[in-house]
Here is the input.
Amino acid sequence: MALTRRALLASSGAAAAVAAAAGVGYAAGQEGDDSAPRGDSHIVDFHGEHQAGIATPAQDRLHFAAFDVTDGTTATQLRDLLKEWTAAAATMAGGQPIGTGAAGAQLAPPDDTGEALDLTPANLTVTVGFGPSLFDERFGLAPQKPAALTPLPDLPGDALDRDNSDGDLAVQACANDPQVAFHAVRNLARIGRGLVTVRWSQLGFGRTSTTSRAQATPRNLMGFKDGTANIKLEDAKALADHVWVGSRADEPAWLRGGSYLVARRIRMLIEVWDRAALGDQEKTIGRTKVLGAPIGGTDEFQTLKPKTLPVDSHVRLAHPETNDGIAILRRGYSFTDGLESLGELDAGLFFLAYMRDPKAFIALQNRLGSHDALNEYIKHVGSGLWAVPPGVRPGGFVGDALLRSI
Here is the structure.
């Protein structure tokens, strides 16, 4: 196959810069058309059985941040911080400023940074997770650590930057306005100053999956429709079977109704992909580029028969039928962060996925890493795993079943 592989020369830095500028312009856009529940208020309820931002219809913008708890922070301070974060997140999701807002005494910082004033809530959701490192000796949480919450093993294709991986706490803020999502993470970081520090963060634009049957299937930066066969919020059985943690004996009671979150920063080798012939692109994915139909088909949503697709195509290898029924809820976003050191575009997929057992992701990634033709065009450069507690009842706080007794 000519002009398709990584060994080809990259395009010029000038061309990459143009692409980067285009991506940044899109990221700064306004609210999307169909990405979340609509109504006069643009509000997604913060409280519920499960945390919002998992099965919620995926919004168009993301600000994700991983935090480390500062040395010397006590268990009581950690609990109180999560209480403050919960109250602030619920307030912001409701479209209200924190505390007294951006006003207040002239000689003190305001309670709210103010950049979301006059904006709608934009369907903001704030989702919080606990990393494996939170369950060390610092807070007495080790006996409550889920057996499945261990750092992800080395996986095929990993080229991880450890400074941009993992973290004690994770905050996923999604909204249909980038400034609203940024405001949420900025204010949680401000509230936590002195107790937590931002380990790394990622902005995302353009959802790369559909989590509701009411949503049109989006396209990723490779130009292909993404998320056609994803788990949908309308499918309660699939969510129960594959996303929500149940009452298994090896799972602690505090996590029931929660989930596990895997985040992967996946850099696409854009310049190489853009030189690939259309036929090679379609064989790599397993779907046609324009329609999103399985190769040989005419409709995006027709029944997919994995064994009729190329043996190394991504769709065939990732399909539950070829993976012992493994399914995960994907909720990723595109990203572009300018140019990397060699002048190539630093852009790709910020992969977010929720599942009831991280072993599902590990098994799937091992299979993809060994056989997937897509690996010639991507590189995994960041990673993390977090346990996501169940939803918050009014008067409670995120992780209260775990932390209220400390």
About this structure: The chain has nine helices and nine strands.
